[in-house]
Structures are given as C-alpha cells and as structure tokens.
Design a protein that fits this description.
This protein is mainly α. It has a domain of 171 residues. Helices cover 64% and strands 1% of the residues. The protein contains 10 helices and 2 strands, in the order ββαααααααααα. It has a two-stranded antiparallel ribbon.
Length: 278
C-alpha cells in the first residue's frame, strides 16, 4: 500500500477483531514463593530491626562460624584441623562461589575475633566484629598474639586461598580476597610476607599478576566512566534549569560504582604496600 499527496493506492487494509482476549499468564509457583519470601523477609526485618540487604544477611552467621572454626575448644578442632579442612575446600576449583565468598569472610573474621585470645566479652567481640564490617584494621594489630595468629592462619593455607581466589571473575570474591590478604599482612608480618613471596616467585603465579594488572585497569576505567556519567548528569541538569524545565533528582548518579571502583583499587594498593612494609 502506498500513500501520496493525491490518493492512497494498493491493497485494501482489512481490520479484524480478535476472537478472544488473551488473559495474562498466571504466575508460577516459584514466582509466588519468591515474592512471598521477599515480603516475609522485609516484614521480619522490620519487626526484628535487622538489616536484610543481600550483602548483610550473612553477617551474624559469619561471626558465629568464625568463632566456631577459630576456636580450639570446638569438637574435632583441637589442632585447628576443621579450619584447615575449610581452607582446603576454598582452594578447590569446584568450590561453589557462595561458599567461597562466605569462607573468605569467615577467615578474615577469625583474625579480628581471635577466638582463642583475650577478647572474650560479648561487647568486645561485637566491637571487634564491627571493625571487620567497617573494613578497619583489627584493634590488636602489632600485638604478639595477633602476629602469631596471622602466621598460623597463613601457614594453614590462607595465603594459597588468597592467590587462588583473587583470580576469580566474581568481583565480590576478588574484593574479599584482597581484604583477607591485607588483614593477614597488617603490621608488616614478615612470616606472611615470606609465604606470599615464596609462592609468587614461581612460574605458576603468572595469572595472579595478570589479575592484579587487570584490577588496576578495570578500576581506573570504572572510575573514569562513572565520573563522565556524573559530569553529564550535572550538565543536563543545568541545561534543563536554563530551559525552565523542572529537573527530578534521581539520587547520586554513578556514585555507587564510583565508590566500588575506588575501593577495589584502594584494597589492591593496601595489599601491595603490605607486602613491602617492615
């Protein structure tokens, strides 16, 4: 069919009505369950005054698991053999990503809580675990007992876990690996430094250094990209204001990704600095 300024020519358009109106698809049982679980979680979090954000849900459990695996009073863990088994599992290629991420956080939490140390009161444990969540150094950095725990966990295989997990494509696992490495090296522990150096001077360490380079490049590009978005949003806002158009704020544009890019680069730098600090 063709249309010109004089007439419409071609085949006649035939409009037919639908025989029936299609009803919307009924939600599946899985969808109904997930939606119900989401609402239940939100309600429970409100009633119990707890944070139900995905990245925070496991925090209380991670603290309890760290106290369990880090204590020699735990059954079948008198020589930290259960902790050693956990480290071995985290190093395996077939390890589930969720388990690996949780395990990395548990290992780091053990360094903060020192289950066999002098930190025994509930308030002291809560305060120290809050430092862990806030990514602050352990309050016992520089103390002899803390240095011993760093060295013991490094010898149990935590250094190998870091090197293995930092090569992951999962950015959460990479960040958790960097944070564990930084905590192991806090205070310039020469034993941990030597263990890292021993592994990283072998030919098999090539992928590790390639990943470090990629972390710098990706973090730098992410920061640049988010800065461009922020700059564009600011320019757009000025243009709309000059045109007399009401601008609706949508929060801080790109701030979350910008912060993540900087945080990843910062942790990488802290790790490299920890390797050299005496």
């Amino acid at each position: 069919m063709r249309m010109s300024q004089h007439k419409i020519s071609g085949d006649k358009i035939v409009v037919t009505s639908e025989d029936s109106v299609k009803e919307p698809l009924e939600p599946t049982r899985e969808h109904c369950f997930l939606e119900g679980y989401r609402r239940f979680s939100a309600y429970l979090g409100y009633k119990l005054d707890i944070d139900i954000k995905h990245e925070c849900v496991m925090n209380p459990a991670i603290k309890d698991i760290a106290l369990l695996f880090g204590s020699t009073d735990t059954v079948h863990n008198g020589e930290l053999q259960s902790l050693k088994e956990l480290v071995t599992v985290l190093s395996e290629d077939q390890c589930d990503e969720t388990l690996r991420l949780t395990g990395l956080k548990v290992l780091r939490a053990i360094l903060y809580l020192q289950p066999n140390g002098m930190v025994t009161s509930p308030k002291s444990l809560d305060d120290e675990y809050k430092r862990h969540l806030d990514n602050l150094p352990p309050s016992s950095v520089g103390e002899y007992e803390f240095s011993l725990l760093q060295s013991k966990m490094a010898k149990l295989g935590c250094v190998s876990v870091v090197i293995k997990c930092i090569e992951s494509q999962n950015q959460e696992i990479v960040m958790a690996s960097l944070q564990l490495a930084v905590t192991l090296l806090e205070g310039g522990n020469t034993v941990v430094q030597q263990l890292f150096a021993t592994i990283l001077t072998t030919p098999i360490s090539g992928p590790f250094f390639l990943q470090l380079k990629a972390l710098f490049v990706d973090s730098s590009e992410a920061i640049k990209a988010e800065k461009r978005k922020i700059k564009f949003a600011h320019a757009e806002k000025i243009v709309l204001q000059k045109a007399g158009i009401c601008h609706i704020e949508h929060g801080e544009v790109g701030l979350s990704n910008l912060t993540k890019g900087r945080a990843q680069m910062f942790e990488t730098i802290k790790f490299l600095r920890g390797m050299c600090t005496v």
